[in-house]
Amino acid sequence: MNKIFPFIACILLMLSSCNSIDEDDRLIYVAPTAVGRCVLIEDFTGQTCLNCPRAALGIEELQKQYGADTVIAVAIHSGPLALKPSASVVGLRTDLGDLYYSHWKVESQPSGLINRKGAPTNDSQWASLVHNELQQQATVNIKLTVSYDATTKRAHVKTAMTSLGAAVSGKLQLWLVEDGIKAIQRMPDGKYNREYIHNHVLRKAINGDWGEDVTLDKTATMEKEADVQIDNGQMAEHMSVVAFVYNDEGVLQVTRQSITKP
């Protein structure tokens, strides 16, 4: 009996202690992890631009440092230093690229936009600009789902956008880009490399040259769907969709998704 009474007293003490905890104090709220802002580099480039390979190497270094899904690059072949496709040359220049080249008043190449903040800048400034943008918090989250039909060579793109605590108004832009294209490129020594590999090359806009309107209330979600045809000669396994939401303040968030890989 001498052993039983202390045991009972201990049990009563435990129950009393538990009951003394207020209902609101039993659950601890853990705030969701903030979504960091990824960075879009719009690299205005050309196959006869001898300093453009230097800019491409700079992008590779940034992607090694931060991750290729955090620093997302799109090579926009455009302007007088770009080559148009022909029977004898694998040219990567597009009318879409020239439209952007003119709109942003690109004066020299290599030149690029970092999250569409300010005017195009020389590649020597990209590292610091990227670092600054990575410190910002995103106001919208983007999730891409891409399904590809190899028979029809068509991809279906589903984009889900969620505002993160504040209303968002802007545009959703979807681009089709391709990696691993072997094509001629003028190098810094002035010589031409016919075995050069071009990556993240802009091929076409999926939902219009300037995208489509997006308006999100606080913590709201919106979904958009679109289809894109993969042209003959393009390698679906090397292609990705780049999606970003932008407005007059710049790019709010950007992401990418391979067409053939989940």
Explain the overall architecture.
With 262 residues, the chain is of the alpha+beta class. It has a domain at 39-139 and 175-206 and 232-258: Glutaredoxin. Helix content is 19%, strand content 36%. The protein contains four helices and 15 strands. The strands form five sheets. Strands 6, 11, 12, 14 and 15 form a five-stranded antiparallel beta sheet that branches. The model is unreliable at 1-21 and 23-35 (pLDDT under 50). This is Outer membrane protein Omp28. It comes from Prevotella scopos JCM 17725. InterPro entries: Ig-like_fold, Omp28.
In short:
The protein has 262 residues and is an alpha+beta fold. 19% of the residues lie in helices and 36% in strands.
Percent of residues in helices: 10-25%
| DSSP strand content | 35-45%
**Could you name the ranges where pLDDT drops below 50 across 5 or more consecutive residues?**
1-21, 23-35
From N to C, what is the helix and strand string?
HEHEHEHEEEEEEEEEEEE
Number of helices: 4
Determine and state the CATH class of the domain at 39-139 and 175-206 and 232-258. Answer: Alpha Beta
Shape: globular
| Gyration radius, in Å | 25 Å
What is the makeup of the main sheet?
5 strands, antiparallel
InterPro entries: Ig-like_fold (IPR013783), Omp28 (IPR021615)
Protein name: Outer membrane protein Omp28
Pfam families: Omp28
Organism: Prevotella scopos JCM 17725
